[in-house]
Amino acid sequence: MKRKRRKKNVLPGFGLTMGITTMYLSIIVLIPLSMVFIESSKLGWQGFIEVVTSDRVLHAYKISFLTAFSAALINAVFGLMIAWVLVRYSFPGKRLIDGLIDLPFALPTAVAGIALTTLYAEDGWIGQFFTLLNIKVAFTPLGITVALVFIGLPFVVRIIQPVLENIEKEVEEAASSLGATKKQIFTKVIFPELLPSLLTGFSLAFARGIGEYGSVIFIAGNMPMNTEIAPLMIMTKLEQFDYAGATAIAAVMLVVSFLCLIIINLLQKWSRKHEMQGE
Amino acid sequence: MKRKVLFKSTAFILSTLLLLSGCGEENGNGTVEILNVSYDPTRELYQEFNEAFAKYWKEEQGQEVKIHQSHGGSGSQARSVIDGLEADVVTLALAYDIDAIGNQDLLNSDWIERLDDNSAPYTSTIVFLVRKDNPKGIKDWDDLTKKDISVVTSNPKTSGGARWNYLAAWGYGLEKFDNDEEKTKEFVQSIYKNVEVLDSGARGSTTTFVEKGLGDVLISWENEAFLSLKEFGEDEFEIIAPSTSILAEPSVAVVDSVVDERGTEEVAEAYLNYLYTVEGQEIAAKNYFRPRNVDVVAKYKDQFPEIKLFTIDEVFGSWKEAHETHFKDGGVFDSFYE
Amino acid sequence: MATDLVKNEGKHIHKPTAVKKETNWTKRVLITVMFLYLSIFLLVPLVYIFVKAFEQGSGVYFAAITNSDALDAIKLTLLVTLITVPLNTVFGIAAAWLITRFQFKGKQLLLSLIELPFAVSPVIAGLVLVLFFGPRGVMGPLFSELGIKILFSTPGIVIATMFVTLPFVARELIPVMQAQGKAEEEAAISLGASGWQMFVRVTLPNIKWGLLYGMILCNARAIGEFGAVSVISGRIRGMTNTMPLHVEILYNEYQFSAAFAVASLMSLLAILTLTIKAWIEWRAEKQQTA
């Protein structure tokens, strides 16, 4: 199988689509993005390491990664649930709820940030309930997480939804008639099918969370060594007209996000193969 | 075959780009258009000033002038100009930002001497905005260091206005402690210890204090403080003038490389000079900026509280030095949070 | 997997009624939890925006969205979306066709690269475009020689929006086309159809719903993009202000109600496109059952 030359593909358009895809991607995304590395290389290796490992920057990475990770995790759990409810159950207002999911895409991030900050402030509509529990949301890492949950939700739900719709009911029914319990059907039949898309959703939400700026900046409070996020560090560098320093921090974020995507895509490929072998 | 495909897709991309470039705007004939790139708190000022200038220019030269405005954080606006935003004039929060444009050879480095008063036709200072009746009894900079006071200001590393705030506090500290740098540092640090939220821009801090009701005192541009009173009612807030503060000089300059290319030098220069006329100064004063013109100063004497003001050059040498010592990465401000 | 199920067969006696009851109970809990979750993260913020927008009465609301600066911003945003969505659609179809129909080296890499714009911070996206098309960049001098303005004018805003929304159509189509398989298309070709005929007659009907879905998401994101566009637009009033930038300007002018009015209009736009989507889906379902 491995050594065999690939089957002759009769479908047309390989050259054309390859051309369009790579050209378009290169001009709009890749070549501009390479500027990050070109510009930051002006610092030299020593300078680069110095910038990206300074205390403030390391702390900002930590905050960004931790909050993005928790937000993506929360979204993975609840996003799966929401997708499940939207696909499997019918109830009044379902279409409206379904439409609402995409709101975070369409709303400018600044508006989301302003609205969330006001709502989650100590005496805000939602914040007051947290105040009763003695929890501060706005201007803490928790607040950043709230904003990132808002931003990342559509990714998880929208990626799981079509896959869930595609899982054939017959498979479940077959399992059920074989005497499997609900729990078994879920853990043994449905969940493995969903896992790749859940992972993709999680990683996209995570990667998006690391880079989010517009909404977080309002709710974060931006206190050094406490609630400063990585994109803010880029902005502070830029404010000092230090393009090289800014792109150095950007380069690290970019590489991490990209690795994240690659790993997830490989995992998916692997799980698809694994699945096929199992059959 | 392959080459043909490559050609086709290249043609597709190129025609796309051409299509895009077709969307650029064209100038109309007869009227001259200039772009003023400014910072956040001057929106109201230039709205009024632009109308007045257009009228003046029409009377003097018989030519219509349309002035476009762009507002944003002072530093990011300067960056846009460096990156090619074709501003005929820049009216920014601090000389440092215009120097940065000069460093890229977009304007002459002697720009600050080209107009009177350090190229700052209007000035402002840093004052405190407190809640009505001043419940915490805040009178001067010392009160901001007290334990139970919550201070609102923005991040000096991302906001031009916040740098004035910081330097004002520092200048007061130096005076109080007889130029003892260490004690001054402790003093300013204890103010920043009372800061809960560092917004990225001056306007952000104002909304945090005014709209979200956070904090006991907002350190603010004087003109912003007056504007907040006007917008939100005098029954909610009060302005407290500290004993000593900094003379904030927002600078203006013509961007030489742009006006040379667009042939707008004359109108751009006239525009900035008009800021120094009695009419221009009145508009500045009406928008709560301190005028320079003696007559206008006298006319609006009651509007502005009397504060002992020092300039940045007197206390810090220059903007460049102030920046290097205090706001650079690893500078004094960063050391507060280590 | 199957053996596990068989093993358990003896222990559990299948009781349909019990299962049904449990389902109802789980269903109720799940729906309630979902409502709560969506309420605190989506619904309340949405309500808040509308409450704020109408705080000073409907007069202020309609004045805010019919003011000439607002109309310019709306026009620009619509223009940008009108250019961005079709281009990204062409790209998305090409990329999905390439990835699902052919085997080649570096496919996973290409797929990750296509997804990359999702993961790039808007701040970085704006920054690199400025560096690339700016006067000190590679393309800047070339374009200014040709007299073409990219940065701080409409083309720059379009490119920034294209950058941010590039993956949507492709990401939506890839799973759909993967599930579809290529048998039908191969049959069409071997029956003598041209590439274009195959695409219009076979592929397009199969992917049309996924395609529309991707376009709608792309559209929603294109309307709302703020970060990258704010870096590249220059914020010139009435010329390069998009709706999100206009919202920020109004907010910074202390016109809170007006700011939220424009924001609410944007959420309405989003909801409108999503209603179209719901309608399309509903028709698709009807078509399937018919």
From TrEMBL, chain A:
All copies of domain ABC transmembrane type-1, residue ranges: 61-264
Q: Does the record bear Transmembrane in its keywords? A: yes
Which PROSITE patterns does this entry report, sorted A to Z?
ABC_TM1
Q: Primary place of residence?
A: membrane
Write out the transmembrane intervals.
12-38, 63-87, 99-121, 141-160, 198-223, 243-267
Per the record, its GO cellular-component terms are: plasma membrane
Instruction: Give the way it sits in the membrane.
Output: Multi-pass membrane protein
Question: What are the record keywords, sorted?
Answer: Membrane, Sulfate transport, Transmembrane, Transmembrane helix, Transport
* GO terms assigned for molecular function: ABC-type sulfate transporter activity
How this chain assembles, per its entry, is: The complex is composed of two ATP-binding proteins (CysA), two transmembrane proteins (CysT and CysW) and a solute-binding protein (CysP).
Quote the function comment for this protein: Part of the ABC transporter complex (TC 3.A.1.6.1) involved in sulfate/thiosulfate import. Part of the ABC transporter complex CysAWTP (TC 3.A.1.6.1) involved in sulfate/thiosulfate import. Probably responsible for the translocation of the substrate across the membrane.
Family indicated by similarity: Belongs to the binding-protein-dependent transport system permease family. CysTW subfamily.
Alphabetized PANTHER family for the sequence: SULFATE TRANSPORT SYSTEM PERMEASE PROTEIN, SULFATE TRANSPORT SYSTEM PERMEASE PROTEIN CYST
Name assigned to this protein = Sulfate transport system permease protein CysT
From which source organism is this entry?
Psychrobacillus insolitus
TrEMBL record, chain B:
Q: What GO molecular-function term can you cite, just one? A: molecular carrier activity
Q: Which GO terms describe its biological process?
A: sulfate transmembrane transport
| UniProt keyword annotations, A-Z | Periplasm, Signal, Transport
Q: Which PROSITE patterns match?
A: PROK_SULFATE_BIND_2 (PS00757), PROKAR_LIPOPROTEIN (PS51257)
The answer to whether UniProt assigns keyword Signal to this entry is yes
InterPro entries in the record, alphabetically?
Sulphate/thiosulphate_BS (IPR034408), Thiosulph/SO4-bd (IPR005669)
Q: Which family does it belong to?
A: Belongs to the prokaryotic sulfate-binding protein family.
Task: Check the record and name the Gene3D superfamilies matching this protein.
Answer: Periplasmic binding protein-like II (3.40.190.10)
The protein's name = Sulfate transport system substrate-binding protein
Q: Where in the cell is it found?
A: Periplasm
Q: Name one GO cellular component term.
A: periplasmic space
Taken from the record, one Pfam family name reads SBP_bac_11
Automatic annotation (TrEMBL), chain C:
Primary location recorded for the protein, binned into one broad class: membrane
Q: Which SUPFAM superfamilies match?
A: MetI-like (SSF161098)
Record field: transmembrane: 29-51, 76-98, 110-134, 146-170, 211-236, 256-280
Q: Which residues form the ABC transmembrane type-1 domain?
A: 74-277
How does this protein sit in the membrane?
A: Multi-pass membrane protein
From which domain of life does this come?
Bacteria
Q: What is this protein called?
A: Sulfate transport system permease protein CysW
